[in-house]
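To: structure subgroup
Subject: Chain for Friday's discussion

All,

I'm putting the inputs and outputs inline so they're searchable in the archive.
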Amino acid sequence: MASTRNQFPLARDLPPRAIPPALHLTKQIRQIRCGTGYAKNARMALYNSTSESFLNYCRDERRMSKHTVRAYRLDLDRFGEFLTAHHPSVTLADISKEHLRAY
């Protein structure tokens, strides 16, 4: 189930609903340590902070269920991983309907 190279399981190795919030930060730290490139990490940092702001809005202002917010978080994280894998040069402002359809 978990990768043998790391002491932490990778998010892709866990069932979709079993990803603890702290693991998302672990994934980001691991990407930075692996040297996946500053520009990519800067784009993903902006994507992640924008996603987190949206999730805080959903939780605090809209008073959405913690389960709904968690589901949104998983969807946003998966979409971010998709963008990183398939459209590495896209910026947050460049995300379009075509990217969503491709996802």
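Points worth raising on Friday:
Residues 37-102 form one domain.
The chain is about 60% helix and 0% strand.

D.
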